[in-house]
Amino acid sequence: MIIEDSGIYLGQAGVEQRLLLKYANRHGLIAGATGTGKTLTLQGLVEGFSQAGVPVFIADVKGDLSGLAAAGVDKDPLVERAKQIGFTLSYQPCPVIFWDLFGKQGHPVRTTISEMGPVMLSRLLELNDTQEGVLNIAFAVADNEGLLLLDLDDLRSMLNHISENKDEYSAQYGNISSASVGAIARALLTLEAQGCKQLFGEPAIAISDLMRIAPNGHGAVNILSAESLMQTPKLYSTLLLWLLSELFEDMPEVGDMEKPKLVFFFDEAHLLFTDAPKALLEKIEQLVRLIRSKGVGVYFITQNPADIPANVLGQLSNRVQHALRAFTPQDQKGVKAAAETFRPNPAFKTQEAITTLGVGEALVSVLDAKGSPTIVQKTLIRPPLSLVGPIDAQKRENIIAQSPLRGVYDTAVNRESACEMLNARIQQNSVSDAGGIWGVVTGAASGMAGSNNVRVERPARPVYGAAPRARGREPESMVTTMAKSVIRAAGSQIGRQVVRGLLGAMLKR
């Protein structure tokens, strides 16, 4: 059995190796060189969480994790491995929901400019400190004047607005140079040329839609298609970091639980930390440390543990280490560092074992019943029960067509926001004083936002399928979805600053 009271079955090392669900939110690491078995370990762990009723989010960077949506088939090496450890291959699929930033291989993933916030946008646009300061001013003015920043057109209009009125705004917020505004505008053009315009707009993704439970009680497996996304690594890492910060903001404190509410797998984790400034690394460390109190487990997948900063690595309690190569002095240093993170086993030398592990073998250390790391064990990892490799395009289309989220995100909607409001102001100013129409427009925006001192909370969406819903309830209409999107985007100045997450207002270089 994959799932028992003793946890998720990982494999065999003389005795069973299991990851305890009550400690699964203490985060984890899957590491190893290319071709050593990381993907199959990851696939098996995802299956275990899903069968335990824990929703999962994972980015598919190579295109082969879509196999989680289909039952496995016999493959000689995996059948032989199953026999060695006495594991029964009762093949079965997971309930999968496909997502895709570009909307081609899954439901579109969107957020608004306001929800992404100036700090993450600055990282995405690769702005310097001065340009980031101007972007922060644009957000502050939008907040104070009730202008919704939903898509790239809104941000462009906002930048144009503060540039044209820079004398007025500079006195209140600080210097606004035309050169900085121009640099941000050019960076936006580059971002749009990379195909990223689809990321910003509505309907924006609701975090609750990542936490669905299938009618059979299994947790939904959310797979983000990232093959094309990986062509722009900074966009990939920023998007996943934003999702993590949104989880932190949206989910309540729950303390210790019998199992996590969600497990988040961060593949190609080195991209998150490469060239990240010290201040951002500190906030990532803080986010990883605090998010476990929200019932979220974060698992990093990378080739070498050295890819993860020491302060973050120290918080990853459940570890599966596949073989590492030691061809160069730098490689040998990495192997030594990886070995030192494990609790030693007197039966073998950890540093030597890391370089001699076979495909499908790993060094495993998890938390025991008392919450202490177990002695590292050489473990033969159990094969997955879902399909190894990708599913065909027709099967993916069928799964998307039958998705419980069909029709919720598939059609983009462009409603009145900063771009339209500022254009209305310009048109009105050309025929009269700035009162009339602009007063009506801002009044309407204020009415949507509610109190200027209270954050409007996001309503929770129903979970996967019909099981936890009232019977007979139909999927949400576009009107309902847009109403929720209005609430999400139209918060007050304080509300917007809060929703931008732990990595927002706290991060000042």
What does the secondary structure layout of this molecule look like, with pairings?
Blueprint: E1 3-4, E2 7-13, E3 15-19, E4 28-31, H1 38-51, E5 56-60, H2 76-85, E6 96-100, E7 107-108, H3 113-125, H4 129-144, H5 152-164, H6 166-173, H7 178-193, E8 221-225, H8 233-250, E9 262-266, H9 270-273, H10 278-291, E10 296-302, H11 310-313, E11 318-321, H12 329-339, H13 350-356, E12 361-365, E13 377-381, H14 393-401, H15 418-429, H16 436-449, H17 478-489, H18 493-499
Parallel strand pairs: 4-10, 4-11, 5-8, 5-9, 6-7, 6-8, 9-10
Antiparallel strand pairs: 1-2, 2-3, 2-13, 11-12, 12-13
Helix pairs in contact: 3-4, 3-8, 4-5, 4-7, 5-7, 5-15, 8-10, 12-13, 15-16
Shape: globular
Instruction: Detail the poorly predicted runs.
Output: 434-463, 465-502, 505-509
The total number of structural domains is 2
Q: What is the CATH superfamily label of the largest domain? A: P-loop containing nucleotide triphosphate hydrolases
Q: What is the CATH architecture descriptor of the largest domain?
A: 3-Layer(aba) Sandwich
- Radius of gyration over all CA atoms, rounded: 24 Å
Number of E-state strands: 13
Estimated helix fraction: 25-40%
Strand content is 5-15%
Query: Pairing-aware structural class of the strands and helices?
Result: alpha/beta
For the residues shown, what is the average pLDDT?
A: 85
CATH topology of the largest domain: Rossmann fold
CATH C-level name of the largest domain: Alpha Beta
